What we know:
Shape: elongated
CATH topology of the largest domain: GMP Synthetase, Chain A, domain 3
Oligomer: single chain
Largest sheet: 5 strands, mixed, barrel
Strand content: 15-25%
Mean pLDDT: 76
Amino acid sequence: xxxxxxxxxxxxxxxxxxxxxxxxxxxxxxxxxxxxxxxxxxxxxxxxxxxxxxxxxxxxxxxxxxxxxxxxxxxxxxxxxxxxxxxxxxxxxxxxxxxxxxxxxxxxxxxxxxxxxxxxxxxxxxxxxxxxxxxxxxxxxxxxxxxxxxxxxxxxxxxxxxxxxxxxxxxxxxxxxxxxxxxxxxxxxxxxxxxxxxxxxxxxxxxxxxxxxxxxxxxxxxxxxxxxxxxxxxxxxxxxxxxxxxxxxxxxxxxxxxxxxxxxxxxxxxxxxxxxxxxxxxxxxxxxxxxxxxxxxxxxxxxxxxxxxxxxxxxxxxxxxxxxxxxxxxxxxxxxxxxxxxxxxxxxxxxxxxxxxxxxxxxxxxxxxxxxxxxxxxxxxx
Length: 382
């Protein structure tokens, strides 16, 4: 080790953003381990590296004690043996640098520097994306493995988009640009793992915050978000100033702001409603739908059947709807059927299908019950 090694460490400090002292301290501890591994583990050895020339020396360190109280000669030395300039409690260092230690030191230095650079890069990646937790990042689709998507961020870091966090109706090809929500950042044996999501409610919240300056100025606040990924999202907003309409601010002129959010979510319908403190008052507010949101008015019956009314919030004559989970697809289909045929049948009953594949068995079964018609005899030609 010489001045060239010191210059290389200085260059690594500049390029990799790793402190010079941390590299030297890691190198000294590695040299101590190498010395004990090759020349005996009992010695209390220390390694000192000159910060200017790069020269290193190995010392055997022992504690100075009063004459006659030496218990272990490898770790302690008396005042008489150490010399008059030492007192009890000082350290006595004796140089024990082996002659053939240069080759071992060179190999150890290479391994330590490579390992230290790898650890520093991992820490940098972890700290970078930990600061972006619950925020939106941009990347490109790299590959698919077992229906999980791997996204390349900043052209060098790989992130995972699990199948459970993907939207069913979204299809991305290789090298497509994708905007995702940072759901979690973990430390693993292979390095930091960044977990992304396209189905989280936080993605909709961040996209709306980017489009609405009133939210950034802390005038309008997003109170709650309910989302069915790929289908519909409902956003409840509240204005801290009575003269500002929270719903109108989120929609923008000609619903342009909410249209940009819907385009980013591949056409997902977004409804913006005014926040109400009580759940029973939600259906009394008049929702205003965004671009492509379809039917903008949501009445109490459909809202409670689709979006999760508690049994205590339902009227007594409709409390049977809470027997199944409110977000169950069967309840949603039942609500649509009951709304289409008002007054016919119970809200929880589904219509009997007589068309399509499911109805073939019913028609075939009814056909078997009928009595066969007598065959007509063909008239003989005269």
